[in-house]
Amino acid sequence: MNAPIEDYALISDLETAAMVGRDGSVDWLCLPRFDSPACLAALVGTRDNGFWRVAPVAGGRCTRRTYRGDTLILETEWHSATGAVRVVDFMPPRTQSPCLVRMVEGLRGRVTVRSELRLRFHQGRVLPWIRVGESGTVAVAGPDAVWLHADGPVHGPDQADRTVHDFVVTAGRRLALTLVWSPSHLTEPPPPLYVPAETALKETSQFWRRWSAQCRYAGPWREAVMRSLITLKALTYAPTGGVVAAPTTSLPGCVGGERNWDYRYCWLRDSTVTLSCLLRSGYREEATAWLDWLVRAVAGDPDHLQTVYGVEGQRLLTETEAPWLTGYDGSQPVRFGTAMTQFQLDVYGEVMDTLWLSLRAGIPMPAHVWDLVEVLMGHLERHWRRPDQGMWQVRGARRQFVHSKVMAWVAADRAVRMGVLLGRNGSSGVWRAMRDEVHRDVCRKGWNSGQRSFVQFYGSSALDASALLIPRLGFLPAADERVRGTVRAMRRLDHGGFVRRYAAEHTLDGIRDPEGTFVSCSLWYAQSLAATGHPRQAREVFERVLAIRNDVGLLAEQWDPDAGRQLGNAPKAFSHVALVETAFALSSLAPNRR
Fold this sequence. Notes:
Blueprint: E1 9-12, E2 17-20, E3 25-30, E4 38-40, E5 51-56, E6 64-67, E7 74-79, E8 83-90, E9 99-118, H1 121-124, E10 129-133, E11 136-141, E12 144-150, E13 158-159, E14 162-170, E15 174-183, H2 197-212, H3 222-234, E16 236-237, E17 242-243, E18 266-267, H4 271-281, H5 284-298, E19 308-309, E20 320-321, E21 335-336, H6 346-360, H7 367-383, H8 402-422, H9 428-445, E22 447-448, E23 453-454, H10 470-473, H11 481-489, E24 494-495, E25 498-499, E26 517-518, H12 519-531, H13 535-546, E27 558-560, E28 565-567, H14 573-587
Antiparallel strand pairs: 1-2, 2-3, 3-4, 3-5, 5-9, 6-7, 7-8, 8-9, 9-14, 9-15, 10-11, 11-12, 12-15, 13-14, 16-17, 18-19, 20-21, 22-23, 24-25, 26-27, 27-28
Helix pairs in contact: 3-14, 4-5, 4-6, 4-14, 5-6, 6-8, 7-8, 8-9, 12-13, 12-14, 13-14
């Protein structure tokens, strides 16, 4: 069986990421980018699909691990009767080739450590040709080459399918192993192999400490907020500013089921909350880069606006399956790529809300962006009445989802506001009329007077956690009785103290597998409780979510209260953004209301 999802910690160089287990094994790594084919894929398969374990020969889970302060440097320790050893894992923010350093330090006594690297290129499938040279071991297959260098004496048996190094560390001694990727047609060892490990560690530490020092949050949950912001930064593709939803693919929403999706891409749906989170936390540069990515990605025909794009704004993200991978605990299929042909009305609202938030924050808006606003709004005015697949990207029939209509209202509202601020009112009358019409439509058709709540789609009695966003989006004030009734009704989505995205009996996408509660939905609920006058309950929900983070503060997409485990791709950017937003919301309450 695969290790629990919560066993994994994240390290990143701001262009790709590795997942490190409590047993010292890197079981997931895509090189050279987040969305590149995996060369270590044991996370969604078996050991034969690639891993790199550095740990005492005796094996076992670590004694303790932690990130070093406000950085993304991971420290993992093993303690035994004969000695203690620490492995320091990090990826230097990239200037040239991607590089992963694993530094082994002796703490006490004498410990024999083994490094076992089993590379499998092209999604854990292709066995590389391995050769040993003066600069270390190099593994080559197709376009990829991976170099492994040890800066001290090691020994190990020569094997055709893996590289094994054994070495002994004693108290005060250390040995570093450096893994570097390069294109296979380059025959010279890549430059990072020649950088001393101590230098790389010092520079990486300085980078993260400088970055973390910019954080403006000073509330009672600073440790959790800081770790979430570091995670968000780690999921940013630095060359373009795009933020991937998660660094992994096909970690299941239901163990053994088929709710397995690839999240190594950038969702427009995350744009507003991500920008808001970065701005209020003090990270204006990252917020500006995210906005720039968004504007470049959506340029073109509004008929072809997608909900998800690649890290460079790519549109063609064909979904394929990998039958040679057994899946996480047998959860198949393992998918690479993602379906992006759905019509999802809400993304127009997300784009307009992000542009408005940026403008209000004083981020300069190029003149051509207003042309984009007019084109998108012209398209939306003609098509907002159409059914769509909704924010959850259901793979079933299209419906008149309430959240999608609310986001159409958001688009019109923000366009009007931007026009006023910029003195461009040519189409404001049309947009105001659309805004009013959408509002009436939602309040009439999306409200269920019998159960006193907004529902999932027109004519339905089903609840959807996305209705919790109505006051935050400004569609109705939190004091409105319809909002209060909706928040009260959300108790029906409770499962073990957490919130489902919608009722378990409603299968919108034709997949019968159950799923866990959604971390982001539970956090929306906490925010809504606070906004509607229930700060104590809001804090209880928030503290409950904080308690399900793993030992290094990371959250996946979902939580299974019955099994007490994380589910879905991890770490999930949207979960961590929601955590930061909730911390700000609850911290802003007067002390006598908390």
